[in-house]
Write a structure and sequence with these properties.
alpha/beta; about 300 residues; 11 strands; single chain; 10 helices; about 35% helix; 9-stranded mixed β-sheet
Length: about 300
């Protein structure tokens, strides 16, 4: 079992700890909230650090849970090993369980965003005994099961909507180093496209977010490891279909990466999953979605008794 490194206690009572998840690979973790509350592990997307989870959202969840967030390999303060030792995406899913092991947690609620939602599905399929519940946001199903439309029509996975052209165009542009301020501006432009356009775009909010990410990481270099990692062997069609863990699928109607009906398909592909829509949400976590998203997650984990708003 991976061994935790010595912990650090911040003045605000937030506990930071480095966890060894594999030989030569150490991940930064942070915990906040009551030590005796049910643990909830946040899993971010590709090349995203743990501090990409907004502070107000983390605090809202930490009022009811022991909330853990962490930096993937090749992000933030964790080890950046890919150039010397390439690894497959599947290793990032193994890291999720290794973080739980390193922090001495038998089970936890899991919340995954984007690639983190795929890693959550892999843990859900492979290690369901480690999960109290799972929530997946802004992601696609690791399943070949077709989507059944409300009218009964069958849609093969390959025919579901693809990534929005403006996102693909942004991703196709080479990233050049023109200094920190230029890099922040590029990231803000990226967030503007990912946000989906239904909610007002707060440039100052995203600028502060990226300044915090850079300060946390210690540099503004752009990581590319997760985009280059081998993504074979990720499908879990049969395992997800027979799932028995409580699963919430968050539907973001303005999502440009996995647009509807991807969330509806995901809720069908995972046994027993239910769907909740967060109005106006895209592939980002701006202030307008913090409250509704926290409410949906906390209702799902049982921390609050409000009835769920389900989408059929």
């Amino acid at each position: 079992m991976p061994q935790p490194a010595p912990q650090q206690q911040t003045p605000a009572g937030i506990e930071e700890r480095f966890v060894d998840v594999a030989p030569g690979i150490r991940l930064w973790t942070e915990q906040r909230g009551p030590a005796d509350a049910p643990p909830l592990l946040l899993v971010m997307g590709a090349q995203a650090t743990g501090v990409g989870w907004p502070e107000p959202l983390v605090d809202a969840l930490a009022a009811h849970h022991r909330v853990i967030r962490y930096d993937h390999r090749d992000t933030g303060r964790s080890t950046w090993p890919f150039e010397e030792r390439p690894y497959p995406i599947a290793d990032l899913a193994t890291d999720v369980v290794a973080v739980l092991d390193g922090l001495g947690l038998d089970r936890a609620h899991l919340v995954g965003m984007s690639l983190g939602g795929m890693l959550t599905q892999m843990v859900l399929a492979d290690r369901p005994e480690r999960l109290l519940s799972a929530t997946v946001i802004g992601t696609g199903a690791l399943s070949t099961a077709p989507y059944t439309r409300p009218d009964g029509g069958i849609v093969p996975v390959a025919e579901l909507p693809g990534i929005a052209p403006e996102v693909l165009e942004m991703w196709a542009r080479p990233v050049e180093d023109h200094g920190e301020e230029a890099e922040i501006a590029r990231r803000i432009a990226h967030w503007r496209v990912l946000a989906g356009g239904r909610l007002p775009f707060d440039e100052a909010y995203h600028r502060e977010l990226e300044r915090r990410v850079i300060a946390h990481t210690g540099h503004y270099r752009v990581g590319t490891a997760h985009g280059r990692a081998d993504d074979s062997g990720m499908l879990r069609t049969e395992e997800l279909a027979r799932n028995a863990v409580p699963v919430l699928v968050v539907c973001a109607p303005a999502e440009p990466v996995f647009p509807p009906p991807h969330p509806q398909h995901l809720a069908q592909a995972i046994g027993g999953a239910h769907l909740v829509e967060v109005p106006g949400m895209g592939h980002a976590l701006p202030p307008e979605v913090h409250g509704p998203l926290a409410d949906a997650i906390l209702a799902h984990t049982g921390a609050r008794a409000e009835p769920r708003r389900e989408e059929q």
